[in-house]
Design goal:
Layout: E1 13-17, E2 34-45, E3 49-59, H1 76-80, H2 89-101, H3 106-116, H4 122-125, H5 141-148
Parallel strand pairs: 1-3
Antiparallel strand pairs: 2-3
The structure holds zinc ion.
Zinc ion (ZN) binds at residues 26, 28-29, 31, 60, 62, 65, 67.
């Protein structure tokens, strides 16, 4: 399975996350950890649209400490969206509510997402397009704008 693809013209809202100060101390030797890598993630937020999240990852500076192999990631990233998902919690809950409380069918939910959010990647509304997607979904703007009004 390939990685999710976004329309190259997509405008992302930038968001940078860093572990909290209190979380930055090594659990084994209590040294202050340092940022050694950035993790990029692009997701679709129900209220904000496409978001580019940069999470700073930290670990212990002592190579011999077991904390050197442990990653300290920002907790705020988990509050944004489920791990490995391209949608935020709000859209996740919106879909779950339609599916299980209102008994909408999956095609009905996909159709509503297509009509409501213009910039959403095609692989979210149609997982079959995940592997062979050369075209980007762009619904008629009149339908999308009339639904938002
Ligand atoms: Zn350590």
């Amino acid at each position: 399975m390939g990685s999710p693809r976004w329309n190259p013209d997509t405008q992302f809202k930038e968001l940078e996350l860093e572990p909290e100060f209190d979380d930055r101390f090594c659990a084994h030797c209590e040294r202050f950890t340092y940022i050694y890598e950035h993790r990029d993630r692009r997701l679709f937020a129900k209220d904000d649209g496409p978001v580019h999240v940069v999470s700073k990852l930290a670990h212990c500076p002592d190579i011999d400490c077991p904390g050197h192999a442990e990653v300290i990631a920002p907790i705020a990233e988990m509050n944004l969206s489920p791990p490995h998902w391209m949608i935020d919690w709000k859209l996740f809950l919106w879909m779950g509510h339609r599916r299980f409380a209102r008994s909408w069918s999956v095609p009905q939910i996909r159709s509503e997402i297509k009509d409501s959010w213009v910039q959403i990647p095609v692989c979210i509304v149609d997982p079959r397009s995940y592997m062979a997607s050369s075209t980007w979904f762009t619904p008629p703007t009149s339908v999308a704008s009339s639904r938002r009004a």
